[in-house]
Structure formats: structure tokens, C-alpha cells
Request: fold
Amino acid sequence: MAIDWENYGRERTQARQSSGYHARSYVDGNTVRKESAVPKKRERVRPRPEPKRYPERKPARIAGISGRAFVFLTVMVSAVTVCGFSYLSAQYEVREMKSQIVELQSEISQQKEDNEMAYEEIKASVDLAEIYERATKKLKMVQAENNQVYKYSNKKSDMVKQYADIPGAAD
Reply:
């Protein structure tokens, strides 16, 4: 048989307390109850307080911006956006122009090379001795002497005005 230690002696002590006998001085058998002995603690079940219910508040009005400020900000944002896109398009055009300049420069250098090669071919194909021989023997030309060569120098400008037709020149 198991002894219920929690309720042990409670009935007797309650009966004696009601008759005026103090439980502290009572000795039960050959063992004395210890006052310092701590019985098992019982957890108290505390009812949770219900949360206080307040009437639902309307959401507080957030301090917003006025209509003028909104319009101003909208205009500024659109202006910044337009400036940004125009800057990007200008930068794109500059890059395109640079690439076109590089292409044109390479084309010019290629044309210069081609012209120099053609000039060297023409220069190599022309034989001055053969031209002199053909002019003097076949065409009966005579080389001019120093007194036959007239040099004209115009001190006013490089342009020469012609006032009449040259005789014997065919149009």
C-alpha cells in the first residue's frame, strides 16, 4: 500500500487545529516533522489575462506631399530621365563617329598605298630616253634652246587672264 505523503497527517492536524492544539508542537510517533522540509511545489495555474480589446483605429494619415510637390518631383524625375537618355544617345553617336573615322582613315591609308603603287608602276613604265628618241626622230622635234624659252612671272596673283583666243588653237 502506497502512502500518500502529500496528504499524510493533514486530517489529524486539521482536527487538532480546530480543537486548539498547535501542529508545530505535535510529535507523531518517534519522528519529528521538520519545519524546513519543503513539500513539492504545485504549479499554480494562473489564468492568462485576456488581451485588452480596443476599438479598431483608422489608419493614421501618413504625412504625404502636396500636389505641387508631387508635380514638381514628377517633372524633375522625367527631366533627369530625358537628360540621361540624351547623354547616352550622344555618347553612342560619338562612339559610332569614332569607329567611322577609324574606318575612313584605314580606307585613306589603303588608297594612298594603292596610289603610290600605281605611280611607281607608271614611273617604271615610262622611259625618258625612249620618249626623247621618238620625239626627235619620228616627230622631227627639236629641243628648245635657252633663248627660245620664255618664262612668265606674275607678281600680282597666280591667275592669268586671257583677253583673246590663242591663234591656231583648236577648240
About this structure: Residues 67-125 form the longest helix (59 residues). Helices lie at 10-19, 67-125, 128-138. The mean pLDDT is 79.
